[in-house]
Amino acid sequence: MRALSLAALGSLVVSGTLAGHGSGHSHGGKRPNVLFLFTDDQDLLLGSLNYVDAVTDRIQKHGFTFDNHHATVSLCCPSRVALLRGQHAHNTNITYVSAPGGGYEKWVASGQDQNYLPHWFKKAGYRAEHIGKLMNGYGTNNWANSPKGWDHFDGLLDPYTYIYNSPVFSANGETPVYYTDQHQTDVVHAKAVTRLKALIAGDQPWFLTVAPVAPHQQFNSTGKYPPVPLARHANLYPGLKAPRTPNFNPKHHQKPSWVGELPYMDAASLAFSDDTYRRRAQALAGVNEIFHDLLDILEDAGELDNTYIIFSADHGYHVGQHRVPAGKTLPYREDTQVPFIIRGPGVPHGRSRLPSHHVDLAPTLLRFIGLPKEQWPTFFDGRDISTYWAGDEHHVRAALRPAPETVQIEYWGTSIIETAGLNLTTYDARNTYKTVRIVGDGYGYLYSHWCTNETEAYDTVADPYELHPLNLTSPKNAALASRLNGLLLASKSCEQASCRAPWTLLHPDGSVTSLRDALRRTHDTFYAALPRVAFGECLDYQLRANEQPFFPPFTDGVGPTLGERYRQSTDAYGRRRRDGAGAAEGAVVIPDAGRFGERYEGVERIEEGKRTLTDEELGLATSVVRDFYAL
Prior knowledge:
The chain has 19 helices and 17 strands. The chain is α/β, with parallel strands linked by helices. β8 (218-220) and β9 (223-225) form a beta hairpin. α7 (184-201) packs parallel to α8. It is globular, with a radius of gyration of 23 Å.
């Protein structure tokens, strides 16, 4: 890709008319469409894209890849809300998958469901539709309160979301239906094909999200198991094992909190990891079929080159890394770094190492569809990352002053080891943390402060597998330690522009825009005087008093707002819901029987086999409900 001159690139960035993307770029005079393909728990770093050639051959080879893209929370619901709102979880206050931290009902109570991605598409004249999983907590108890903003919404319902052979959906708030003798992935497939054809036949530009659950683990009342693939894929990849990366079941293991207490994985744990990895690859074969069919439909209709196609996952996943047989919720790169690829009109083939995260998706999409910037929400924490392909990486870094360097990552709540039948504690309350990842020009660091008030830091250039923590108490690392603490202190409560440029919150005169700048000796006294990041205790929800201090300080009601200006207060809701948290989405009454999906039967056959859930199936006492589905 030929680089623009620095002066020319800078002027294009300021004007918002970057070469190669254009605002509302059209093909043949038509406004562009947007297809968002969004999987659940799909890793980037363990090779999952090897099993989805619809992505690698038909999207990545014709599009732009963001090599350092991260989820802001390595857990489903808060990550999805951050993406839908363009805000970090500390600003949405949707911090977990169930009350008091999060879940669908808290999302609705916060009022944020009245001002998020589909509403903005409709403001731009688009039709907005969703197929599949939206977020945790939308279930058989609250299906009538259908998610707002969508012209058509056909969503998976808890407690069946993670039970592959018991697919239950509700379309537009209608009574839930069960698709007999069908696998969930095939039902998503049929629905996506039907809606895409209808959208193409319509007279509006459109935004369609297709969100299958695979390759998420199967959760049922007896435990957490590897995903259940379509029956036709159950024998794929014989002998496939989890990659033995350097951080897979490491003999040398130095980690904070509960992670540091994990035992060396035994034969049973290793077998579970290998089975999980193979089943994940098999489950993705069904997702691959969906994606190929959707791309075929676009191509046959002549709409492929007029459609922005975005592929990503809500967060990553680990399979044996750091001695955890299977799961997420950790700050390490396997859990937070996800695939993020865009193909579409004006998008060049290429890639960037500049850091980005899910809060960047919304502003980028609004740029694509040409919504005037004065109509964008003012609360965005993310940036339009179509700027990343305006030239080569060196010139983009120079033009985007301050250059993007940081990724904010956070977590509230218990750890989740997604296993069954192993001699392991699968939950631990000591998993709340604040993290900042630095992806600089020639350097990189990961720094975390846990609710146990332990810290860890890694030089991610010298130690990319995050195995050997730096000794931050050593005098030689004193300057680095103080800068990492200062950056985390500022970024953990950032909002809007300060999230995009947290160094300028510490140095409003603009003298420091990178770690390299901050490490100048002239700043030693300033950073040494900053208070240390701290937690009062390990809580499973956000509480301002528990996470003091902040920068700037919060005193007498003045300081970081944690997004409160743009949502309803949900603090009382969280306390009120604690006793019944996670037990409101209805009981599992449809058995998980059979192995379905010997062949894809097509839309008509799948729709013929559905039936409406009975009042009895929807109204059983919640006293028999289990929490497994809320993870």
